[in-house]
Amino acid sequence: MVSIDISEIDLQWIQVLSEGWAPPLKGFMREREYLQCLNFGLLVDEGVQNHTIPIVLAITDEDKKRLNGETKVALKYQDNFVAILEYIEIYEHRKEERVAAVFKTTTTGHPYIKMIAQMGDWLLGGDLHVIDRIQWNDGLDCYRLTPKEIQQRLKQMKADAVFAFQLRNPIHNGHALLMQDTRRQLLANGYCNPVLLLHPLGGWTKSDDVPLNVRISQHKAVLDEGVLDPKTTLMAIFPSPMTYAGPREVQWHAKARQVAGANFYIVGRDPAGLPHPDIPGEDLYEPTHGTKVLQMAPGLNDIEIIPFRVAAYNKQLKRMTFYDPNNHSDFEFISGTKMRNFAKQGQTPP
Question: Which GO terms describe its biological process (predicted)?
């Protein structure tokens, strides 16, 4: 059988697909699924299902020639066979069209667009069969729970509501306030045991984001110190790479949590966004659009969106509270970027 080498990010997408995070996909997208995703943000062959981020496997001209006449191919990562792709289909990787549709920009200053520009000129789709469960052997595999495993854990915890929070930064007190307040609201609305799915993204992130092992250590400390209640929190790692595609990507994040059993999803400011690569001081995506898009996105009917409430450090009370614009001078805003800078400079945040 012909084999092709894959990248670390390809392997992360294989984990996403093989564990069932992206139904109804059974493997890397064929052209029909790809065109639906690109042009509709939906998959429509098995009912209308939200799917806004292409999950595709790029290959080179040389790979395409070697696959001529083949119906299946072995996928190899660092000399180890990890999966087989069957009933394969090869189609053109129109990169500019892809990035314009998904990212709403074509600037190669964007880190994921830059990677796409360096990928092969063909896309390979087919049905995926993994040889063994994907393991990274980094001491964190115990947190990499599949959607079915998460659902089973939630059942064991007797959760009657599940609220998910996705993050790619350390938890700061503003995040904690949002999560604590969400649980308070759910209890006030009649739920008896709402459980937090604390679900940090575990795939590729850009180079200046905090590494996964550091984030998990910090999240564990937050639980150990009781900032979040470990008895009503399930921490697991979401295996997806980060694409920084703004409102389109935040729909993917919400869909995956819906698949895992969440029925409430906390969405923050500028979810899945980043600073504009070409315009200093500007965001690439309007910070409120992620929330607005999620609240009207098709195919996410089983999950309720909990909009971001602005939390800031109250200098008078010396703790995080929700921002009151009538007392603006009392507040200091602590963003994820500011937290990363505190860490880089060895400073203790307020």
Answer: 3'-phosphoadenosine 5'-phosphosulfate biosynthetic process; sulfate assimilation
Work out the number of other CB atoms within 10 angstroms of the CB of residue 349.
Answer: 13
Q: Is 167 helix (H, G, I), strand (E, B) or coil?
A: coil
Spell out the domains of the chain, with CATH numbers in brackets: 3-130 (3.10.400.10), 141-345 (3.40.50.620)
Q: Which two tokens stand for residue 91?
A: 């189609």
Q: What is the 3-state secondary structure (H, E, C) of 105-140?
A: CCCCCCHHHHHHHCCCCEEEEEEEEECCCCCCCCCC
Contact of 37 with 299, CB cutoff 8 Å: no
Cα–Cα dist 333/314, whole Å: 9
pTM equals 0.91
- pLDDT tens by residue, 2-49: 999 999 999 999 999 999 999 999 999 999 999 999 999 999 999 999
Distances (CA, A) of 74 to 16, 217, 313, 315: 18, 36, 53, 58
Q: Is residue 190 exposed (0-12), middle (13-18) or buried (19+ Cβ within 10 Å)?
A: exposed
Q: Is the per-residue pLDDT at 316 higher than 90?
A: no
Please state, in angstroms and rounded to a whole number, the distance separating the CA atoms of residues 165 and 181.
13
